[in-house]
Amino acid sequence: MPRIRNWQDLILYRPAPSTTYTHIDAIFSDKAIDWELIRTHVPDLLRIALSIKEGRILPSTILRTISAGSSSLARANRELGRVRRTGLLLRIMAEAELRAIIQRETNKSEQFNLMYNQKSTPLGPSFRRCLRAGMPV
Predict the structure, then answer these.
(1) Could you tell me if 88 and 3 are in contact, meaning their C-beta atoms sit under 8 angstroms apart?
(2) Which residue from 19, 23, 124, 137 has the fewest beta carbons nearer than 10 Å?
(3) What was the pLDDT predicted at 47?
(4) How far is 104 from 58, CA to CA, in rounded Å?
Protein backbone atom coordinates (compact mmCIF):
# COMPACT_ATOMS: atom_id res chain seq x y z
CA MET A 1 0.00 0.00 0.00
CA PRO A 2 1.33 3.40 -0.86
CA ARG A 3 1.87 6.15 1.63
CA ILE A 4 -0.37 9.06 0.83
CA ARG A 5 1.42 12.34 1.48
CA ASN A 6 -0.53 15.15 3.13
CA TRP A 7 -3.52 12.88 3.66
CA GLN A 8 -4.87 15.31 6.23
CA ASP A 9 -5.53 17.72 3.33
CA LEU A 10 -7.55 15.18 1.35
CA ILE A 11 -11.33 15.20 1.34
CA LEU A 12 -13.22 12.29 2.87
CA TYR A 13 -16.59 11.94 1.18
CA ARG A 14 -19.79 10.94 2.91
CA PRO A 15 -21.79 8.01 1.53
CA ALA A 16 -24.88 10.27 1.55
CA PRO A 17 -25.39 13.96 2.38
CA SER A 18 -27.46 13.08 5.45
CA THR A 19 -24.94 10.60 6.88
CA THR A 20 -23.44 11.62 10.23
CA TYR A 21 -21.02 9.87 12.55
CA THR A 22 -20.77 10.14 16.31
CA HIS A 23 -17.01 10.41 16.79
CA ILE A 24 -15.49 11.02 13.37
CA ASP A 25 -18.00 13.35 11.72
CA ALA A 26 -15.55 16.28 11.77
CA ILE A 27 -13.09 14.59 9.37
CA PHE A 28 -15.70 14.24 6.61
CA SER A 29 -16.56 16.99 4.18
CA ASP A 30 -20.13 17.97 3.41
CA LYS A 31 -19.66 16.46 -0.06
CA ALA A 32 -21.22 13.08 -0.75
CA ILE A 33 -20.61 10.33 -3.31
CA ASP A 34 -22.86 10.32 -6.36
CA TRP A 35 -23.75 6.61 -6.26
CA GLU A 36 -26.26 6.91 -9.09
CA LEU A 37 -23.57 8.19 -11.45
CA ILE A 38 -21.33 5.22 -10.57
CA ARG A 39 -24.25 2.78 -10.89
CA THR A 40 -25.07 4.14 -14.35
CA HIS A 41 -21.50 3.61 -15.60
CA VAL A 42 -20.62 0.30 -13.92
CA PRO A 43 -20.70 -1.62 -17.25
CA ASP A 44 -18.35 0.89 -18.87
CA LEU A 45 -16.02 0.97 -15.85
CA LEU A 46 -15.91 -2.85 -15.79
CA ARG A 47 -15.20 -2.96 -19.52
CA ILE A 48 -12.28 -0.56 -19.01
CA ALA A 49 -10.96 -2.62 -16.09
CA LEU A 50 -11.11 -5.84 -18.13
CA SER A 51 -9.38 -4.19 -21.10
CA ILE A 52 -6.56 -3.07 -18.82
CA LYS A 53 -6.32 -6.49 -17.15
CA GLU A 54 -6.18 -8.30 -20.50
CA GLY A 55 -3.47 -5.93 -21.70
CA ARG A 56 -5.51 -4.51 -24.56
CA ILE A 57 -4.88 -0.95 -23.42
CA LEU A 58 -2.46 0.73 -21.02
CA PRO A 59 -3.97 2.27 -17.88
CA SER A 60 -2.25 5.58 -18.60
CA THR A 61 -3.80 5.72 -22.08
CA ILE A 62 -7.36 5.11 -20.96
CA LEU A 63 -7.09 7.40 -17.93
CA ARG A 64 -5.66 10.17 -20.10
CA THR A 65 -8.51 9.69 -22.57
CA ILE A 66 -11.25 9.59 -19.93
CA SER A 67 -9.84 12.43 -17.84
CA ALA A 68 -9.29 14.73 -20.81
CA GLY A 69 -13.00 15.48 -21.08
CA SER A 70 -15.79 16.18 -18.70
CA SER A 71 -17.96 13.29 -19.82
CA SER A 72 -20.20 11.48 -17.40
CA LEU A 73 -17.85 8.47 -17.65
CA ALA A 74 -14.97 10.67 -16.49
CA ARG A 75 -17.08 11.94 -13.59
CA ALA A 76 -18.08 8.36 -12.67
CA ASN A 77 -14.42 7.33 -12.70
CA ARG A 78 -13.59 10.26 -10.40
CA GLU A 79 -16.45 9.35 -8.05
CA LEU A 80 -15.26 5.74 -7.87
CA GLY A 81 -11.76 6.99 -7.09
CA ARG A 82 -13.18 9.10 -4.27
CA VAL A 83 -14.93 6.05 -2.83
CA ARG A 84 -11.71 4.01 -2.95
CA ARG A 85 -9.54 6.80 -1.49
CA THR A 86 -12.00 7.53 1.33
CA GLY A 87 -12.15 3.82 2.20
CA LEU A 88 -8.35 3.52 2.14
CA LEU A 89 -7.87 6.57 4.35
CA LEU A 90 -10.42 5.30 6.86
CA ARG A 91 -8.73 1.90 6.89
CA ILE A 92 -5.29 3.48 7.45
CA MET A 93 -6.67 5.54 10.33
CA ALA A 94 -8.35 2.52 11.91
CA GLU A 95 -5.59 -0.08 11.59
CA ALA A 96 -2.33 0.57 13.44
CA GLU A 97 -0.78 -2.56 11.91
CA LEU A 98 -1.49 -1.29 8.39
CA ARG A 99 0.10 2.08 9.24
CA ALA A 100 3.18 0.24 10.52
CA ILE A 101 3.45 -1.82 7.31
CA ILE A 102 3.15 1.29 5.15
CA GLN A 103 5.76 3.12 7.24
CA ARG A 104 8.17 0.17 7.16
CA GLU A 105 7.89 -0.29 3.39
CA THR A 106 8.21 3.45 2.76
CA ASN A 107 11.35 3.57 4.90
CA LYS A 108 12.84 0.71 2.86
CA SER A 109 12.33 2.51 -0.42
CA GLU A 110 13.58 5.82 0.99
CA GLN A 111 16.72 4.13 2.31
CA PHE A 112 17.30 2.55 -1.08
CA ASN A 113 16.93 5.95 -2.76
CA LEU A 114 19.27 7.54 -0.23
CA MET A 115 21.86 4.81 -0.77
CA TYR A 116 21.55 5.11 -4.56
CA ASN A 117 21.97 8.90 -4.45
CA GLN A 118 25.14 8.61 -2.33
CA LYS A 119 26.95 6.85 -5.16
CA SER A 120 28.56 8.67 -8.08
CA THR A 121 25.36 9.46 -9.88
CA PRO A 122 24.18 12.78 -11.25
CA LEU A 123 22.26 13.20 -8.00
CA GLY A 124 25.03 12.08 -5.65
CA PRO A 125 27.54 14.29 -3.84
CA SER A 126 30.56 12.47 -5.34
CA PHE A 127 29.40 13.35 -8.84
CA ARG A 128 28.93 17.02 -7.91
CA ARG A 129 32.40 17.17 -6.30
CA CYS A 130 33.94 15.79 -9.49
CA LEU A 131 32.15 18.39 -11.56
CA ARG A 132 33.26 21.26 -9.31
CA ALA A 133 36.85 20.05 -9.41
CA GLY A 134 36.75 19.78 -13.20
CA MET A 135 37.51 16.06 -13.06
CA PRO A 136 36.20 13.72 -15.73
CA VAL A 137 33.27 11.65 -14.60
Answers:
(1) no
(2) 23
(3) 94
(4) 30
